[in-house]
Amino acid sequence: MKALTWRSLRAALFWAASVLVPTAPAQDANNDLFALFNSGMQAFAAGDWAGTISAFETVIARAELTPQMEPVYFTIGAAYYNSGQFEKAATAFQTYQEKFPKGAQFTKSQFALAEAWTGAKQFDSARAVLTPLESNPSLREDVLVALARVAELEGDPQKAIPPLERLLANGISSRSAARGALQLAPLYAATGRDRKALETLLLLEKNTSLIDNIVQLNTTALQLGDSLFNQGEFESALAAYRMVRLRPQLLAFQRERIARMQDELAKLQAGLRAEPRRAPDFAGAISALRSGVAESERLLGDFEKLPDFAPGLYLRMGRSWYELGRRWQAIVLNRAIQDDYPDSPEAATALFSEAVAFADLGRLDSADQAAESYLAKHPGGSFAGNASFLRASIALQRDDLEAAERLFSGFLQSHPKSAYRETASFSLAQILFGLGRYDEAIATLGAFLQEFPASPSAEDAEYRIALAWMFSGDIETAVQKLTGYLSKYPSGRYVADARYRLAVCEFGAADHEKVIEMTRSWESDFPGHAQLPELLSLRADSLAALDRTDEALAAYRAAAESGASDEVAGYAFGEATKILRRRGDWPVISQMYESFVAANPESQLVPTAVFWIGRARAATGRPAEAIAFIAETARRHIGDPKREAVEQLLTQLAQLTAREDKRSGVPPAESASRLETLLSAPGEAPNETAEARLLFARGELLTAQKASRDDLRKQIAESFEPPVLSPLLLGQAGDYFIEVGQPDRARPFFEFLQANYPTSSVIDHAYAGLARIAYDAGDYEKALKLYTAGTERIPANLKLRELTLGKGRTLLALGRLDEAEKIFEQVASIREWRGEATAASVFSLGEVERLRGNWSKAIAYYQRVYVAYQKFLPWVAKAYLLSGEAFEKLGQSAEAANTYRELLRNERLTAFPEFAEARARLQNLPPP
Amino acid sequence: MKAAVPICLFFASLGLLPAQTIVLKNGQEISAESLRRSGPTVFARIQVAGGGSGEVGHAAATIERIEFPRPAALAEAEDLRVSGRFDEALKRLASVIDPSAPFRDLRGSWWAPAMLKKVRSLLDAGRGKEAETTLPAIPKAFVADADVIDLLRADILVQKQDLAEADALYDAIRKRTHNDSVAAQSWVGTGTSRLAAQDAEGALLAFLRVPVLYPAETNTHPAALIGSARAAAALGDQTEAAAAVEQLVTAHPSSVQAAQARREFPTLIPSNEK
Questions:
Q1: pTM confidence score
Q2: Over pLDDT 90: what percentage of chain B?
Q3: How many CB pairs under 8 A join A and B?
Q4: What is the ipTM of this complex?
Q5: How deeply is A550 buried, as exposed, middle or buried, from its count of CB atoms within 10 A (0-12, 13-18, 19+)?
Q6: Are A240 and A221 a contacting pair, CB within 8 Å?
Q7: Fewer CB within 10 Å: N-end or C-end of chain B?
Q8: What is the average pLDDT across A428-440?
Q9: Are the beta carbons of A361 and B237 separated by less than 8 Å?
Q10: Torsion angles phi and psi, residue B24, rounded to 5
């Protein structure tokens, strides 16, 4: 409880001191009384309440009741109060009021009496005294604070709110009001009126100079922030948290306050020195300030011992920002914790929170980096499981299935009891499925169903098992599983797909009549279903297989024209075109594509359609019309790099133009300018994409002139930035830089192609190019990822051979000989790839055996190379040399020498480094 | 030591600084009508008994500080700089720098603060080379917070594209400063440097430190907010860019950065702020 200080009594005592100073010749009795009065006064100033009481009781007992005695009666009450004798204080103040009803301190005594009753826990008496005092302007603020305190002490804090609200009705302009506000805010919060509490604190925040106890403001603001956060009031929670002062600010605030008090104290002391006669007056104020400074210094000492709460505060603020959807701001706060308080317990949470916020923002690299850093720094931390799961999910989101598989497997092993186990298990199975590792996918899905039979993903799991059997080539089991799925989930999500797949299985079994029957039944059961085009296309395939070409043609056209995806429409049109070309029915081809273009003017297939329309017109003796028609479409799309088939049109246009020009005797040099005129819109400058394509078109005119074509390729590669080039030109530009040994210049073209045209028909250029760059740089892991993705996860066309061979070479470089061997055997066995790829594969099979130390087997492969693939000299040279070396390893020097000599006899090999090497080896062979 | 040199010469006050108080190291305070400097001596024109005025000379070494009135031109120049009127700002600053130059080594002189503002104005005006040649003229000893000089030095490095060196300097400043204003400005500098280095993520996180952790440093907010908008836009985060632009044009509508935002991000300006 607050002491009644000398400050409040100063005026009264100064007056008392002056009236008791004897002005006439001193009398002994008076002198004694004066001495007693002085000693009582000094005792009070020194906080010696017992001394004050003892002196003033004697004065009261011995002195007559005169007006001069008023301060004594008042001060003794104060001394009782300050010594904790509240009931005696109350009696003393009541006596004062009885004796001095018109006394100068009467009003103050009323307030003091109320304080004494409060101290004595006589709350009704206190309230009875305080209530009428509220109307006294000089006491109003103190009275309202006192009324609130009475209510709180009574255990009914709600009753404290009305007086405090009256106190703050006109704002905060005094220390009492500031104290009241600090009292009111938690009362509001305790009754769920957090917004009112916040408003009160915000009002207080504007008047911090009036606050005595800044720590109380901090505590209230922090608690209020937490309460608001828990209620989902994140904006308000942030406002509350922002009011919390950090430790350095708190210390500075308190030091400033102490300095101000010390300054005031120094001024008082200077005043005392200047006017020693006024000592009684100054003594009280000095005493009050000294105790104030001491109290403030004690508080400062407490503040200094406080732990730094900034990390906890930042974490709270970060969460509030996060909940408000402002992830960047949340990251800023989490970073601040890690930067400024790296050893705090909150640093780990902050790091994980950062990872989550980055992941939410789609900043996957940063999210993964933060999660990885968390796991490295806090492998056993509370969020280790979550961080592992997050990393795996990020890998999946990045479509890096190999990494995702590794990370999910690791997660499931390290955190067998995690709440994410179900999701992780199913994700892992899906990944294995996506990687084409169907056996493992089937096993993982089976285990998943056993562990989580009631999972919402159970139906998906069962269906995927059926698909995995199908894709792994076990059609019999697939049919069994698909049928099982249909009987278990007759209204399941995948019923239509399952029945389509069953029809596909029948197609695989060449039971075309059954396919036709099944697809008709499907069509009637799922009218308007999104898979209808695929189904019609399947039926058309069966009809075509049965040579029912009219029906097949109708079905293909129906498939293409029933809202099919570009992929299905492209296939169906292609098959229909094949039938029509066999019949030589160019007018129908033209009509078919013309109606498609009319109905789908924005389709990506338009250039393809135009290509066929042009061919149809040329084939029906209307080449000029075909040229004009194709040129018109090419011109419309030539500036749009996303229109992939434009190059196809340009090739066709170049061929038609060259043929027509040759027929009509136009010199080849003029063909190029005629082509450019055809492709240029009158009065319109071509954009960069069009410029690049015009160079491409010129190149297509020069089919027989490799050097000139290469020069045009170089121009395209060196003159244009990736964003302006079409997918095909990106691939060609990248390939050009690879060929000339500038992988760093090739990379941006491939990366742009990979990132921006993932479904392009030439996307394989990007994978093959980037994989080659990684392989040449010795980054075999990265190369393997790219080669694997290129062979298994994208529709590789032109580059499939290069990708497959590259994967084998990379596996060889990684020492994964069994896997490499399988791939080289596969390449060597594909008839369509006969040629250098076969030579390279056979040679590589020799390498596999050489690395296994199987010298004889290696020699057999090497010999196959230089016997069967003599055309491919680089491989022949290598094969001779390594074959010789293998003979040496076997100790067969004569055979080795023969092999080297055979190499040296081949004049076509003289320029190869192996030639000199063979000569040297021959010389170094031991004599027979 | 001879503390004061009374001289009873009467000068016209041409070119002298107006009313100020000299506080000597011995605690004595002298109210002067004007001051002038001659070598190691500061001459104060004071009122003398019976009317009139005379000059008293004080050795500069005996002066604790001089309480010059804050020149209005300093605040005016800051307003002009913030609104992008750099030439006018520099003229205003010259009106402070030139007369206070003789007192540049004395505590309380407005020379160093005005020079710092001059360097800042030159930098903002894109006159990095002039800023670079001007900055070394300000001795660290004349500046209340020497980090401010390093901050300007780092900003000059950013304009010169010496980004790694600038980043290191900003980090060093932050490690030692207790001044929120300096810390906030250093984050703006880091953000600008990161943006120049095409590190939009690093830039955004640096710029956002200012409104998130230094809400009271409102002078730095416009630069931080336009930087945030640019970095967020570079990252393709239109939501964050729009939020920064909105805060910029509503909270600092007359700043040069708000005008820039209106030009750079016309589609992100809230309809009521267009």
A1: 0.68
A2: 59
A3: 29
A4: 0.85
A5: exposed
A6: yes
A7: N
A8: 92
A9: yes
A10: -85, 165
